[in-house]
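Lecture notes, structural biology module. Today: joint structure prediction for complexes of two components.
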Amino acid sequence: MPVVELAGVTKSYESKVAVRDLSLSIEAGQMFGLLGPNGAGKTSSIRMMMGITLPDSGRINLFEKPFDRRNLDRVGYLPEERGLYKKMKVLDQLVFFGQLHGIGQEDARKRARDWASRMEISDSLEKKTQELSKGMQQKIQFIATLLHDPGLVVMDEPFSGLDPVNTTLLQDALLELKSRGKAILFSTHRMDQVEKLCDAICLINNGEAVLSGRMREIKSRYERNHVIVEFEGSAEFLKSDEIAEANNYSGHAEIKLKPHGDAQKLLHEAASMATIYRLELVEPSLEEIFIETVGGKADA
Amino acid sequence: MRNMLLIAKREYLEQIRGRSFRISTVLVPVILIGLLSVSAFTGHRMGTGKHIVIAADNPALAADVRSNLLSNKRTHDTVDVVAPFTAQDRANLLARIENKSVDGVLIIENSASSKPQVTYISESSGDLMDTSKLDEAVNNGLINLRLTQQGLTPEQVEALLKTVRIETLQISSKGKTGKSQGMAPFYKAMLMTFLMTMPILLYGFDMARSIVEEKSSRIFEVMLAVTRPDDMLTGKLLGVGAVGLTQIGIWIAAGVLLSGSALLEPVLRGDIKVHFTLIEAVLLPIYFVLGFFLYSAFFSGLAATCETAQDLQMYLSLAVIPTWTSFAILPFLLNNPNSPWVAAASMFPPTAPLVMVPRLGMLPAPYPWWQVVVSIALMLISIWAVIWFASRLYRVGILIYGKRATLPELLRWLRYS
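The predicted structure, tokenised, for the full assembly:
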């Protein structure tokens, strides 16, 4: 059963339609990616899910019931525009957010300590937020989002501004939540992260869903017409009639075949001209699907 | 409700623990006492402690003027007499002014004639208090002298010149007469208006500043995802209001403790004694809290439309409206606390907190209780309405970054959320 469900949701500001007839649903134990170029309507959609703004039309269900603010205690939200009380001590801040979500003071304190040790910031608990680096503050915000063990986690660009080590730390935490049956939605324009983490996606552009479904299904809709070749010798075979586009990086070529282009034929041609170490038929990356779908229509 | 109280608690504790609270709690009374002490000190210096010499052609007149000048028991002046005096005495006295061994010389000549010549010579140009005091002393002396010359005994002169003090009585609505309080109601009204306006402005603006600060730190969106904007606003108002009451409580407690000590003696030496009745002591905090809520909610709504502290400065002029209004009403209030305009101002929500309590202080019993009830009811309704509006602006305003809202935009925001 879906944890969150949007059906035909539309929201306009003045003359601009921010979200048009958007439908999506996220199941328990699912990691869901909300994708789109800047200004596509990702944040507007998320704000409606959180009750910060109200849809003009359409329906939003949360935990299988029509949207009700009281259920927000079971949601963890990390907005794109992060914010913490700068002059407040980290531990007090985490306890405050935990209490706002309905957990007791002592429980919140204990959970904050556990999370801090897991996120490697135990030493900073007694410091004021303004004394910490941006990356550290991001981790605190991350903990504040998860302290009350929400059933639905909504994160807007959760990894922006983080170094690779901390990105991995946060990704692992999210994967662990997923394995515990939590529904996770995150919005991003970083396709590599979505490809690695998400089970399902919704790609929106100009407020409309242009592509949505499970990752496997989406990828299977696209032909395997990308070829990677590692070779030594003449690169003349890259002029083959089977090829639509090719990029040669001295011995490593990334090739896009023409529609119905034959990879076997290409292999023969290449082998006759060069020594082939590897020739692999790969599925298109999400980035390529994104560019192909959104194309020149994106605003940004 | 739970979140509202949590927000209030957070706001209260953070501010109470903050350095600015400690500093302002100590600094404000220190500055106030400092200013009062300086004015009390200079006041004493101005009227007392001077060394004056009276040079007169008539020794009896000189002695009379001297005793007139020293009749005030609180005076610290020293008054010497040279009578009769010669041209040499005059030159010597002028030299003493120059070398600052005396502050001034009062010369009375031709006292027996119908046009006596009286001159006061000093190094400074002389202040109003000195001149009026000298005027009175010399004229009294001259009248005494003339009457005695007419053959009256000193006792007859005293009986003739005995002044009468006018007793002012105030009639209550039940027709009973009671002792009028003279100038006390004026001082009390001033004091109460100050007591109300200053904290309302200070804490109202504190509230607005903290909203702009939180808006610029982008914390609102996190908060809005767990709590309703009106809970956020009300919680914040409760927290900041409690901080204000705590601070005022500390000042009052410190004032009560210090008033018995020698430290405040120079400040309290003045004759202004203001007594608060029990009703005033109860109503003053009630109206303070209501006024604080009304104005702070209003400022918060404005703050939600601002992007930076600089934008907020624009609204600073609005913040002094309660002060202007209350002080503008003060003369009308003192003139006739029962006039329909003053009665209306004491019930009109924006002015009620600043006018009602001083007004009650000036009215004889029984108080118009129905007006008190109406004013409190109207204030509660307005507070609810302002919070409702402000929280709408709050919800939309805080999500729109990058520019300050124009009036048409504000109206659209009210329609939106």
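Point to remember: The longest helix of chain B spans residues 184-216.
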